[in-house]
Amino acid sequence: MLKITNTLTGNKEPFGPLTPPKVKMYVCGPTVYDDIHIGNARSAVNFDVIRKYLAFSGFQVTYVMNITDIDDRIIKKAIDEKREYSEVAATYTKAYFDVIEKLGIQKADIHPKATEYIAEMIGLISGLIEKGHAYVVPSTDLGKDVLFDSPTFKSYGKLSGKNLEELQEGARVEKNETKKNPTDFVLWKASKPGEPQWDSPWGKGRPGWHIECSSMVRKLLGDSIDIHGGGIDLIFPHHENEIAQCEAFTEKPYVKYWLHNGFIEISGQKMSKSLGNIWKAKDALKDFRPEVLRYFFLSAHYRSGLNYDREILEANMRGWEEFNQTFQRIEEALTAPHSDAAVMDLLELRLAIDEVETKFKEAMDDDFNTPKAIAALFDLARETRRVLSQSARVTPGAKSLLAEVLEKLNLLGGLLGIVTTERASAPKEVEELAQARVELKKEKKFKEADEIRARVLAMGFTIEDVQGGHFRILPKK
RNA sequence: GGCGGCAUACCCAAGUGGUUAAGGGAGCGGUCUGCAAAACCGCGAUUCGGCGGUUCAAAUCCGCCUGCCGCCUCCA
């Protein structure tokens, strides 16, 4: 039984979608004004795994992730770079999908762009005005603003656990003369001359931030959906405001389960432009394999913070390498001739194979506990390596078990996206040198053999001796 | 000031009432080896930030304290 921690209730609840086996899932995607950083990447990976696990569990998931392609920061960038805002958005949308693809993140079923849903937004805003939840105020020469009247939505604050009085007393709520209440927020923003603009009943303007998600959710998934996700920082005000807009208008529950992922910190500090410690995903991908980054992201629970430090990531990578080595070693054993004479103890491996999927599911069913799920995979991998070390050539019985291991680890590890299909392969020349070295060793010409090893090392490869006069070539560490 | 989260071995990180406190990294000891590396085996928290309380039983529940962090303004 899958359980999910729901931010709305603060509890871990059994997961029951509105219309099983269908699951409607929406996650707040990027605002395409710059390259995404590893925090964005972590979020995308977390929800990718959640989406895949739901599908693995038999649910029919419809997954929507938006692209915010109109926003103040995009406009600012466009002005700074003297380009059209749409060019800026297109540039970073492309960059986003490039990173997503590299990270092995399955595309959402739909990636709607905000600017393609302006009509739906205007419709929703008009409806809110008619129902008395929004009001129009004069703004620029080109048009008027529309603001949400927060006290008219009586459960405002239910997601973030805030109430209107506290927010009004709070020192950090901005003063704004056009707002009737400090917690009111913009639904429609009048454009200034030269800014991107759309025609509306309130003149030339553009949508507020919160309204786009609400509009796209309703248009693409319906009034009520099962899962809505995003970063922990979006709880307030973004998701709170989405609830207010939608529920005030539809008078139906907007989202059943709210999921929020924790932040990545850089050496204990929040990533921010002002601190200058932004680590872009595309740069991370230059230094680390995508599977390693995914392994790192999934090494902590998605709700927790994740501290990044180069040493921590590199320590994670060493564990990941050993895990992935297992695949290559199994493949080697499977392709090598078998041995009927080998004495092998396979009992523990049999047990490990039988329980791995159960342990994996138990972990994932507990609010997508990926660290625990990974531990289950590592248990099987360790047991497999133990068996492999018993004999260079394995028995036919061992081969069939190893094939099962491969299947399980590929299935479950593949779901997490932490398995690499890349195998260490060396140039033919290196292979030949290594083979020649075997002969030299047989003739006890160790000095020559060591010279070959040194030469190969200079070429970027390490030769490791394996039992029975065999060898393995690995990239230099 | 309001709301929320976290504190588990040298490091990362699961565990949220009851058998030996997962897993990974690093370390140490051993086996193997021409050497090296790898591999494999073994070792490692009598204890879970501190102090009280509840309970037959707590890392796990409650209270207080200390420390760190996030949100309340754009933010994954």
Index terms:
477 residues, alpha/beta, Rossmann fold, Isoleucyl-tRNA Synthetase, Domain 1, 3 domains, four-stranded parallel sheet, 15 helices, 15% strand, RNA-binding
* Termini separation: 43 Å
Work out the count of structural domains. Answer: 3
Instruction: Compute the number of helices.
Output: 15
Strand content: 15-25%
Q: What's the total count of β strands? A: 15
Main sheet attributes: strand count, strand direction, barrel closure: 4 strands, parallel
Which structural class should the secondary elements be placed in? alpha/beta
Second-tier CATH architecture of the largest domain: 3-Layer(aba) Sandwich
> Which parts are unreliable, with pLDDT below 50 for 5 consecutive residues or more?
170-175
**What integer is the average pLDDT?**
90
Q: What is the third-level CATH name, the topology of the largest domain? A: Rossmann fold
Strand order, sheet with most strands: 4-3-9-10
